[in-house]
Records
---
Amino acid sequence: MYATRETADPREDGAVLVLGELYDPSEWNFPEFKAKWVWWLSCRRHYPLEAYRGWGHLFQSEYARLLFEKIGLSGFMLTDHIRPDFFESPPAPSSKKDLIIFSGSRSALNVLRLKLTEPRLRLMPLRGLGAPQIVRRMDEAKIYLDMGLHTGRDRLPREAALRGCLVVMPRQGAAAGPADVPIPDEYRWPAGRVAGLGDFLRRLLKEYDERVRDFSGYRDWIGNQRAAFQKEVRHFSEVCRDVRPPAVSPAEKILPQLDAQVLELEESLGRLKRESADLAVRVENVLMLMPLKVRLAALLNAAVGRLRRPR
């Protein structure tokens, strides 16, 4: 996705390490690195803050930057951009269907609630698909619906907007404001609320041809992200070797015991979220199979009835 230069040994003297927040920082404590930076692609922590003692901080979203700033951590913005193939040959509005697509796992629970109250809406998950399949499904749909928690600038809403979808987002997390998701405020739906959502989505489907123009500014913003990212990389390249992160940041002075408790709570909430999403997906699959099971049961009963008839 990004053009990078590989070296024979990433630990060469004077190298600068940039590590995503998913990776264990304790595995990268090599003295050869001149500086080490953690890149917060989301604001969800996986390791204690103590593990980042002496590290600098990069933020993929304004939401994450402001959140960490509240506990005394500052750094630089290093965002991202969307793959070029999502910009190629956007579909004609006339080719769109009355289809609503949604993020398969993150939105599963709330979309299940919506399906139970609005069975006539055609809702299809983006789950287990490669990039070409995602593009084709987005090209068919009129709406991309996201009802999950956003801890950073997610790619799916941006990709869907480029493929001509109206984007409906939750009013929470990184999606709550224009800094990370600059869409018209009308398209931010109250987080977790299903009441009234079906009527809103039906209105969007009916008015698609007029409303798709509401996202022209969002699409232009997405189109400029590659240049913005390259500018951020150049700026970081200029300062990363000269600006050494402080030995102890204000946030790293937090009592380690308290930080460990907070991290444990975050992990518990993350497990609960994953388990509820998995349950919603299982129930959704059962509901999808129910009509088929009913038809098979009817055929089986008919066959048994014929066998029981006297000859």
---
Amino acid sequence: MKKFLFISILLISIFSHLFLLSTKSYAANLRGVCFIDSKNGWIAGDYGTILHTADGGITWKGQSTASKEYLLSIYFVDLKNGWIAGENGTILYTKDGGSSWTIQSSGTSEHINCIYFIDVHSGWAVGDHGIILHTTDGGSTWVFQKNNITYNLRGVHFTDNKNGWIAGMYGTILHTNDGGKTWIVQKSKSDNHLTKVYFINANNGWIIGEIGTILCTTNGGITWTLQKSDTIANLYGLHFIDINNGWITGRRGKIFLTKDGGTRWEEQDSRTISNLEGIYFVDYNNGWAVGQNGKILHTEDGGIIWKAQNK
């Protein structure tokens, strides 16, 4: 009887452990999301979490990687080629849609907070203590780009292989018009930490940050204007589909929509109080937001209704 009881307890312990292992990645905080079309998308998060969907999020499946780092940013240029950046200099690359992920050598142990590519060859990554990395061969080699910033850099976005912007701590905004050979400081009119940057073209762009900060430019950053957000929440996720329509996510489930380029921002009901760190739309209707404790939200009507998706 004692032997049977011991075996039963042992089996329960083993299955409980396996269950925890199988669900750990899905309960992790999710940091970034990227979709190629209304069906195919990927999410990156803590503890090496990578999720993929081929049906618009009806089902999400984990993808394997050797990394157990916090993965902070993800970007795909097509159905096959994608990159992920994370803590301790982590850069991952896939050439088969995530069926396999390989580690690329970033040359740094600093946290890499954001990664962005304009095609399968040219990309940039930014991180702590002013780190700016650039590749022209899809990440086979990454080189450091010189700048005079020592603050943490949080967001990067390019409109072509020449024009790009970076956002970071203490209101830092950097701009290049030569692919990063030179980076010039732009005046942000804010001392708040900035988290994300997004440009629709070489003139029109937005930057978000802590304490409800939203900045806008219509001249490539020569001047930046503060936009009214009506929130003091920290803002984390930013995405526009055209010069008028864009969304922002933030602390405690905040989601904001603009239909006029940010002249007015309207809060949407996310139905969650979890921090939402990433957002991506493929058109005016279909979008996804991801965040704390494995939260995945989806909308089919531009955010009028947000629904949780199962992992």
---
Amino acid sequence: MNEGLANGERPLRWLGDSAARLTAASALLLATNLLWIIAVVLNVIGPVGSLSAGLLAWLAFVLDIPGVLLLAAAYAGLTREQGLGWTRRRLAITWGFILWAGVSVYWRFVLPLAIGTDLQDLFLGLLGADPGALALAKASWASMSELFAWWIAAAAVFLATHVLVAVDYRRATEGEWTAGLPAYVWVLGAGVSLLSTILIVAALLPVLGGGLLGSTFTAGVLGKLLVAPNMMLSGYVSSLHLGRATKAARRASVG
């Protein structure tokens, strides 16, 4: 019998147990990174029917938030199932993912709304494709600087949380699904993502001041939209398989 059930702590039915949450999180995050890769391709070749790079970018911006929250729920569920109480490490992992989700909602949606537009239009403006959005961004220099700062902060939190995941992976006990996570791949992907974010911001800041796009932009975009997603994609394929295998093993043990 599942130890969490034995202790009377049934998981929320709509979320399932920790393995089900890991599976759902991996599926959403795999889809998110795949969307970014396809969006890059569509940006080069043009829209395919009603499918455009902009649409896929918006889907990716939305899907990864519930995906990461499900990862937090997976760690919370695992702790309850074991009935051993919270460790500081797993508590920090859970809240790290929750913090990332909150900061991401703020810089992606709340701040652009406060400026008077949306995130995609702001970036198009900074890249010279929308003069009106560029003027709005320049007029809201302080808010744009705050947006960039929170973007970098979110990437840093994501990396720090995955470093804790890697530490937890090293210390996982036999039988825990955490022992099978692609933790080092995730850390590497999150690190590339943070570095790429810094490079993109460094290139865009001069534009706000009326200058030209910085030379670090291309490297940042390649890292953010191609290198990091490919790394994370392979990791989420692995964790998706892990979650499904863990669910199957639990069903077999109950049967």
---
Amino acid sequence: MKKRNCKNYCMGVMGPRLVIKVNNSCNGKCYFCVGHNNKPLPTVDVDVLAKKAIELEKYPNVLILGGEPTMYEHLEKLVKKIAPYKKKITITTNGSNLSCLLPIVKYLDKIIVSIMHYDKQRNKDIVGVYLEDEGRLIKTFASINPKLKLRVNCVMLKSGIATIEDMKKMADYVKELGFNSLRFSEVTSPKLYDEDFVNISYLLKDYGVHQKDTVTHGCYLEPPILEEMFGIKTILNLTCILKAPSKIYKTELTEEEMLEEIEPMQNVDSLVLHQNGIVYNDFQ
């Protein structure tokens, strides 16, 4: 099985990357979102934010997040200012305001849209918003920028996409919309027993993608068999007991050994630039 990285994806070990959190506000309601408890922060002028991003020359790849970044009123200006100085710019969105990306599509390397179900009403029930224009703008984006990577991130839930058949239907849906890759993620939840948790690793065990210990063996996978099954590049983002207590398994390491393994690789190569202009090496 191909591993994107032998280390743990959620620890930030993904190459030099600058995460710009442009806001903390969101029009969605995903309970499992890492930012669902975001608190309001003061916001610096967009010129200051752009200047700080440009000055971080060792970080050529940028990921723009929120909150919901399309709610940030200066998003277009920010992207246009930093684009000449950055190699790749990615934006993650819930898809409720896709049209605001039209002026900046040509500057982007990737757009990631969070869609939790192929049925628009069930997706609305989970995410809290409808996909703007039912996603028809995705093909427009591709026509403007043929090199643009267009990905859907789907968090698997028992109340949403929960079976292999559901995964197939989701793949057919995103292909029809014009996306060229699909990522299925396990839910990250602080609950000890989350009734909505779907263990993707066990679900796909018969297909040879079982990953017993994601802490020490990596959690970001691209199993070729899934691309063959679904007809689209398919990525799995597995979680671990550190991020989701519902995923309980017997690790190969003792607790002390596990912590020693994890500590040195936490966010070793990524920075986070917050809307208040302060730079951290994690998501605090």
